[in-house]
Amino acid sequence: MSNIDVSVETGDKPAPPPKHPNTCPSCHSHYRDDELEAALWVCAHCGHHFPMRSRARIDWLLDDGTFLEEAADLHSEDPLNFFDLRPYTERLAEAELSTGLSDAMVIGQGSIDGRQCELAVMDFSFMGGSMGSVVGEKFSRACDSAAERGTPLISVTSSGGARMQEGILALMQLPKTIAAVEDLKDSGQAFINVMAHPTTGGVLASFATLGDVLLAEPGALMSFAGPRVVQQITREKLPDDFGLAEQNLRFGNIDAIVPRPELRGRLAQLLRLFDAPV
Amino acid sequence: MPPSEHELRLRQRLGRLRSMPLLGGAKLSGDLQRLERQLDRLQQEATDEEIWRSVQLARHDSRPYTLDYVERILDDWFELHGDRFNADDGAMVAGLGKLDGRTVALVGQQKGRDIKERAERRFGMPNPEGYRKAIRVMQLANRHGFPVVSLVDTPGAYPGVAAEQHGQGGTIAESQAVMARLTVPAVACVIGEGGSGGAIAIALADRVLMQENAIYSVISPEGCAMILWRDAGEAKKAAAAFKPDAIHCLELGVVDGIVPEPEGGAHTDPDAAATLLKASIVDALDELDGVPGDELRRRRRAKFRALGVFA
Question: Which of helix, strand or coil describes residue A67?
Answer without folding.
Answer: coil
